[in-house]
């Protein structure tokens, strides 16, 4: 039984082939596209359950592709990019991406993250009828939640933990995704309800 349909968008045929192989081995149906326009057409035509999206595409960048997908559908999007600047990662996540993996990458890690993001999104739907199952927070994520609860802003948290402000924003996004919330206030309420902090 298929776990779902995944669209892989990358202009490098070798990466498309490798990911198609790993995803198929993990029981996903795989679609591929080599540019942004083809990706948008595939989303409309084939209705994938998730998208693995390269940021550097020949016709438009992946951030724009994500923005256009988000106007139509709310499906998990995982960026795959050689761009490692925190500003690009933050922008990508704030545009609606669910995760960001930098190249070179381990295909097994990508499959694991895809499994996790689909569990989260499908878990949110299930939680209407029963208790939600939240993905476990790391020790660093718990610490950041505790600092948020104390009223520290992103800059103050970054200074305290010796991180960049952009990195803290990425952590915030991951925490919100795991707790299935949209902002800091909801995150604190949910974390207290579930005794996570």
Tell me the strand percentage band.
Answer: 5-15%
Q: Largest beta sheet: what is the strand line-up? A: 2-1-3-4-5
Q: What does the radius of gyration come to?
A: 17 Å
Q: Give the overall shape, derived from the CA principal axes.
A: globular
Largest sheet: 5 strands, parallel
Mean pLDDT: 86
Structure summary, number of beta strands:
5
Highest CATH level, the class of the largest domain: Alpha Beta
pLDDT below 50 for ≥5 consecutive residues: which ranges? 124-131
Give the N-to-C terminal Cα separation: 38 Å
Number of helices: 9
Structural class: alpha/beta
Strand and helix layout:
Elements: E1 4-9, H1 13-25, E2 28-33, H2 36-46, E3 50-54, H3 62-72, E4 77-81, H4 86-94, E5 99-102, H5 107-126, H6 139-149, H7 154-161, H8 165-179, H9 184-193
Parallel strand pairs: 1-2, 1-3, 3-4, 4-5
Helix pairs in contact: 2-3, 4-8, 6-9, 7-8, 8-9
Describe the structure.
The chain has 197 residues and is of the alpha/beta class. The protein has two domains: 4-126, Rossmann fold (3-Layer(aba) Sandwich); 139-193, Arc Repressor Mutant, subunit A (Orthogonal Bundle), CATH 1.10.10. The protein is 55% helix and 13% strand. The protein contains nine helices and five strands. The chain has helices at residues 13-25, 36-46, 62-72, 86-94, 107-126, 139-149, 154-161, 165-179, 184-193; strands at 4-9, 28-33, 50-54, 77-81, 99-102. Strands 2-1-3-4-5 form a five-stranded parallel beta sheet, sandwiched between helices. Strand 4 (77-81), helix 4 and strand 5 form a beta-alpha-beta unit. The chain is globular and about 45 Å long. The N and C termini lie far apart (38 Å). The model is unreliable at 124-131 (pLDDT under 50).
């Amino acid at each position: 039984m298929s776990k779902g349909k995944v669209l892989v968008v990358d202009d490098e045929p070798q990466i498309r082939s490798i990911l198609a192989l790993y995803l198929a081995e993990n029981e996903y149906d795989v679609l591929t596209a080599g540019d942004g326009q083809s990706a948008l057409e595939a989303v409309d035509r084939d209705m994938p359950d998730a998208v693995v999206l390269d940021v550097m595409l020949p016709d438009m960048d992946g951030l724009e592709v994500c923005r256009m997908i988000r106007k139509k559908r709310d499906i998990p999007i995982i960026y795959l990019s050689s761009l490692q600047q925190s500003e690009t990662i933050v922008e990508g996540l704030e545009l609606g991406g669910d995760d960001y993996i930098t190249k070179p990458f381990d295909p097994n890690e990508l499959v694991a993250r895809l499994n996790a993001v689909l569990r989260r999104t499908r878990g949110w739907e299930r939680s209407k009828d029963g208790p939600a199952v939240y993905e476990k927070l790391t020790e660093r994520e718990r610490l950041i939640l505790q600092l948020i609860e104390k009223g520290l802003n992103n800059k103050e948290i970054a200074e305290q933990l010796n991180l960049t402000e952009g990195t803290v924003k990425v952590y915030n996004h991951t925490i919100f995704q795991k707790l299935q919330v949209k902002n800091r206030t909801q995150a604190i309420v949910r974390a207290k309800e579930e005794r996570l902090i």
